Amino acid sequence: MIPTITLNNGTPIPQLGFGTLKIPPDRAPTPENARKTADVVRLALQIGYRHIDTAQMYGNEMGVGLALAESGIARDEIYITTKLGNAKHRPDDVRHSFDQSMERLDLDHLDLFLMHWPLPTLYDGDFVSTWQAMAGLLGSGKLRSVGVSNFQPAHLDRIVSATGVVPAVNQIEVHPYFRNDAARAASARHGVMIEAWSPLGQGTVLQDSVIAAIARTSGKSVAQVVLRWHIQHGHAIFPKSNHEERMRENLDIFDFALSTGEMARIDALDRGEVGRIGPNPDTFAWIP
Ligand code: NAD
């Protein structure tokens, strides 16, 4: 039911998955919290999600690992992404923190490991050695694909020209109010698949009257129309919800299609930089 996209290294990725940012409680990896995360993620897996997006900085890898183990679903049927924490950019920390993620997730191999942020104003602006260390993990047999997140065109150009290693994925903020055209175009130019984070703009686009009108004619919800817009643009997405009915709604987007005109009307909602919700990757320098 869920389409797969083939990455530039030949590996398939399910185009729709489940996001875990702020799956409660966030960034506090206690056993009690792991239990709560596991219950939400296990429900998502039961409903049919087969692609889970987590991160070291979400503090919930242990709960995701617990859900995977309890689900009884074969490892090769589930696609797992985690991301390098902002405090772990030094090459030795890359390798060590990857091993720690694998322990928390209780996995013997990971599908995708992303550099969460380029952090160009930290570590003397050096994210190239971080990238080299991440690419070095590909030979370990424990990692299938390596990619980046929040990379602007200049960041992408720099790692590709310095190392020759093209990321499989660039996970960036994209939704109807922030099309993020420059980063999307640079990713496409390098053959890097786009993953759209906050595909629903963290809920901000759900009150939009243009999308609501399209939803009415489609017989679908506003959220489903927005998610369908991403699918037709070729983005991988992983909307997040703690509620079963919304989890189901977000999966149910493959029995209708938006017309070219409807796609264009949603494209036209772009507000440029003003529409950005998250931090600007050119200046973001947060270390938890
Ligand atoms: P999102 O756009 O998925 O929106 C989530 C919000 O929308 C929640 O409040 C949820 O309750 C609501 N929602 C979800 N489905 C709905 C529906 N059908 N109807 C009405 N409301 C609905 O935002 P997000 O969680 O920020 O992004 C998704 C995922 O992207 C995250 O969980 C995370 O995995 C990833 N992410 C990555 C980065 C990064 O820097 N790489 C940053 C932010 C998010």
Summarize the structure.
By secondary structure, the chain is of the alpha/beta class. The protein has helices at residues 31-47, 61-71, 91-105, 128-136, 153-163, 181-190, 209-218, 222-233, 244-251, 260-267, and strands at 4-6, 12-14, 18-19, 51-53, 79-84, 110-115, 143-149, 169-173, 193-197, 236-237. α2 packs parallel to α3 (91-105) and α3 crosses α4.
Share of residues in strands: 5-15%
Terminal-residue CA separation: 38 Å
Our count of helices gives 10
Mind summarizing the main beta sheet? 8 strands, parallel
Average pLDDT score: 97
Spell out the helices and strands N to C: EEEHEHEHEHEHEHEHHEHH
- Say how many strands there are: 10
What Rg is obtained from the alpha carbons, in whole angstroms?
Answer: 18 Å
Structural class from helices and strands?
alpha/beta
Q: Return residue spans where pLDDT drops below 50 for at least 5 consecutive residues.
A: none
Ions and ligands: nicotinamide-adenine-dinucleotide
Strand order of the largest sheet: 3-4-5-6-7-8-9-10
Shape: globular
Q: State the helicity in percent bands.
A: 25-40%
Describe it for me?
- The structure is a single chain.
- Helix content is 39%, strand content 15%.
- β5, α3 (91-105) and β6 form a beta-alpha-beta unit.
- The chain contains 10 helices and 10 strands.
- The chain is of the alpha/beta class and 288 residues long.
- The termini are far apart.
- It is globular and about 55 Å long.
- It has helices spanning 31-47, 61-71, 91-105, 128-136, 153-163, 181-190, 209-218, 222-233, 244-251, 260-267; strands at residues 4-6, 12-14, 18-19, 51-53, 79-84, 110-115, 143-149, 169-173, 193-197, 236-237.
- The site of nicotinamide-adenine-dinucleotide (NAD) has 25 residues, from α9.
